[in-house]
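User: Run a structure prediction on this.
Assistant: Running it now.
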Amino acid sequence: MNALKLVNLTGHDVVIFERPKGGEVATHATDVNQLKVLLRVAPKPGRPKHLEVASEPDIIEIDGVMIPSGTEWYTGTLQYIPDPEPGTLYIVSRLFASAAASSGRDDLVYPAEEVRKDGIVAGCFKLVRAKPFPTEWKVASQ
């Protein structure tokens, strides 16, 4: 296994915990202080990356109340992402990694198996690469 460099593009710290040995571990930890921190990766300074979004505003009326609404979609533009660099993995969001996977980027990872404390993500147990979104979706009936 080659040593890699991690660059955090999420805009917040990413904490990777060691999975405790023996048995399943709930990802809703009551005391994250009992988990060993393997690595804490601070965010890279500068503008955070994002997916370019376009939108069309609208208003819907519900029970006589006018509610701001609209339609949003991703334009297919990945903004502020560095070019690939040998030996470097970039930490991004799950959505960003999934969107970028279809462009052939395999150097983007996202936190998975998140550990939450009081409903807030405190860290994760692993970093994973995304596969491209399916080109066709099926709607499963209930």
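The chain has a mean pLDDT of 85.
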